Amino acid sequence: MSAIPPMQHVSSRAAFGLQQDFQVPAFAERDEHVPEIDPVYRFNPEVTLAVLAGFMRNRRVLIQGAHGTGKSTHIEQIAARLNWPCIRVNLDGQISRLDLVGRDAIVLREGRQVTEFQEGIVPWALQRPVALVFDEYDAGRPDVMFIIQRILEREGSFTLLDQNRVIRPHPYFRLFATSNTVGQGNLNGLYHGVQALNHAQLDRWNIVATLNYLHPQEELEIVLARVPGLDDAEGRQTVEAMIGVANLTRKGFEAGDISTLMSPRTVISWAENSRIFSDVELAFRLSFLNKCEDAEKPIVAEYYQRCFDRDLSESAAQALR
């Protein structure tokens, strides 16, 4: 088991802007697995409290919300300010039991090929002061999910059957997950590939938080911080219209009218591209419209017209036909 690095404490109010001021354990030094700090990141107070509880009290925290809301980034940015190593694992359909647990591999030892057990990400992380984040938690395969269930207990040990070895978690190992649903599967047809989660496993998550999209004013400030060249009267008006289009795509996505939405990341790309091309409409097509299904492009074009009070140009209209 890895040694415990030097520790310190940071103020929740100073570091995260929370009204509650308590001392959060943190590491005194950064290592290669600590995420980079994003100085303009905006923290959701409720989700921040939930994640901090995970770090402070070793609670298992699941964050649910639509894609593009910044669920994983929220955990990473908290870890960054705590100097806490953070590893993300995307539970797509290609992740197998062997990836998580480990497998036998042929290695060279003193010029000879020998078979040696290579630990997977779960036993590796369990033995270290690491925050392990399972992205797309509700898309994991059933055999993979039952492996995770074994480490959901705070003091739960992990048995490597192939090695006849029991691994007990490091005192500063932490576990988080993000999901688009709350374990009920793809009931509304918006998230293909997600699974209905075993209720016994879902019940083992101590805290479930929901992260929604930012308030338009907060999103505006983030975009302007990323693209300071738009931080004037005209630029702010343009960005407000961009965010208006984004919010319409999000509502359209929830209603099932379109299958693609604009995340805050897409809005930032649109704003950046508008500076590169000196053309808001061209940047819109290249940043988002071209990602949409042909049948949905007229709907998205209508969103653009409603927010910018002008139709797309004739060249863009031709592309919609």
Strand content: 15-25%
Number of domains: 2
Helical percent range?
A: 25-40%
H and E order: EHEHEHEHEEHEHEEEHEHHHHHH
Low-confidence stretches: 185-193
Question: Which strand order do you get reading across the main beta sheet?
Answer: 4-7-10-3-11
Overall structural class, as computed from helix and strand content, comes to alpha/beta
Rg, nearest Å: 23 Å
Biggest beta-sheet profile: 5 strands, parallel
For this structure, the quaternary state is single chain
The overall pLDDT average reads 87
Can you tell me the CATH architecture of the largest domain? 3-Layer(aba) Sandwich
The CATH class name of the largest domain reads Alpha Beta
Distance, first to last CA = 62 Å
> Any idea of the CATH topology of the largest domain?
Rossmann fold
Q: What would CATH call the homologous superfamily of the largest domain?
A: P-loop containing nucleotide triphosphate hydrolases
Give me the count of strands.
Answer: 11
**Outline, from the CA principal axes?**
globular
The total count of helices amounts to 13
Descriptive account of the structure:
By secondary structure, the chain is an alpha/beta fold. The protein folds into 2 domains: 7-210, Rossmann fold; 216-320. 40% of the residues lie in helices and 17% in strands. The protein contains 13 helices and 11 strands. The strands form 4 sheets. A 5-stranded parallel β-sheet has the order 4-7-10-3-11. Strands 1-2 form a two-stranded antiparallel ribbon. Strand 8 (158-160) and strand 9 (165-167) form a beta hairpin. 31% of the residues are buried. Mean pLDDT is 87; it is low at 185-193.
